[in-house]
Fold this protein.
Amino acid sequence: MKTFHSHVSTFMFIFSLFFFYPFVSVAVDTITPTQPLTINQTLVSHGEVFELGFFNTNNGSLYIGIWYKQIQQLTYVWVANRDTPITSSSGNLTIVDNDNMVLVNQVGTVVWSSNQPTKAVKTVAQLLDNDNFVLRPENDEKLENYIWQSFDYPTDTLLPEMKLGWDKKSGITRRLQSWKTSDDPTIGDYSFKLDTSGFPELLTLKNETRIWRTGPWNGIRFSGVQQMVGVDIMQFELHDNSDEISYKFEMVNNSIYSRLVINSFGVNQRLVWEKTTKTWRLYWSFSKDCDHVGILSRVGLGD
Ligand SMILES: *[C@@H]1O[C@H](CO)[C@@H](O)[C@H](O)[C@H]1NC(C)=O
Ligand SMILES: *[C@@H]1O[C@H](CO)[C@@H](O)[C@H](O)[C@H]1NC(C)=O
Ligand SMILES: *[C@@H]1O[C@H](CO)[C@@H](O)[C@H](O)[C@H]1NC(C)=O
Ligand SMILES: *[C@@H]1O[C@H](CO)[C@@H](O)[C@H](O)[C@H]1NC(C)=O
Ligand SMILES: *[C@@H]1O[C@H](CO)[C@@H](O)[C@H](O)[C@H]1NC(C)=O
């Protein structure tokens, strides 16, 4: 019996190698003109931090999204075609004419595109370990030569290295916009942006009406957000110079995941992934009705 078992387990071992190997070997991070992303495939960033692929909502609409590879409860951090879902059962994300990236539905209609002027270079689209999904020349990985990047078109989530605010060189203003409901990525009523008209500060807007503000940057943090004091796992940065007025954060240790979200109820949440409990721990959250408006009022910043 012992021999039989060990044969069985040897067989199982070889079988599992055989069975899993093909999946491991096709884990790619890049779409090329000859290799589109089809419905049942995903891209996985080089260090296996993020995964990009198709996902369905309850009513069967199909979207391209990015989620954390290592977190089982899917946490979407970016959605491409949030207002133009595919309503058929299939689609392809592909590079056309060695140029732009397009998402086509089952009958080949383009529902979403990177929509950049033609550059006449052979392009590839790559998912990076920082969540940025970039369209770049095939043989050129330099950041300044990206043709298009998802970081310029955030959904409802700010991740380390992403910027909110105004890029004066490209003219792009980056803001977060909530999902319509927790299971519908369609653009909702709430947004979260860096106000660059005066002393820079973050604002939550309901449609275009301001409902919450952080108070201006005081050199270290936003003055109305006392929760930022003593947080030592991340660093907050505000840049105000001739190139940009922007806000971003970085993790001291990149193996700790954190995200800043504007949810579909207009609540601004700072979350940190706890590996031991496998849950997103809430560091702070703000909405119009919460206590913290009181703090803002006391320092004279309330509405
Ligand atoms: C994708 O996977 C689903 C479920 O595994 C399967 O039913 C479907 O036929 C697959 N589609 C394609 C195009 O491979
Ligand atoms: C997607 O691309 C694959 C491979 O090129 C092709 O066989 C398939 O018909 C395409 N599907 C759609 C929906 O365009
Ligand atoms: C259902 O699908 C439509 C697209 O046909 C989309 O606009 C709508 O927001 C979706 N609703 C939900 C709850 O997913
Ligand atoms: C916000 O704007 C959307 C579309 O412009 C509208 O449907 C919605 O009712 C507005 N919400 C509020 C609270 O004004
Ligand atoms: C980062 O955190 C991980 C655990 O989450 C730990 O194993 C690793 O040593 C840390 N790295 C540094 C440079 O502190």
Q: What stands out?
A: The radius of gyration is 22 Å. The chain has a mean pLDDT of 87. Residues 154-303 form a domain with the Agglutinin, subunit A fold (CATH 2.90.10.10). The pocket of 2-acetamido-2-deoxy-beta-D-glucopyranose (ligand 4) is lined by residues 189, 206-207 (CB under 6 Å).
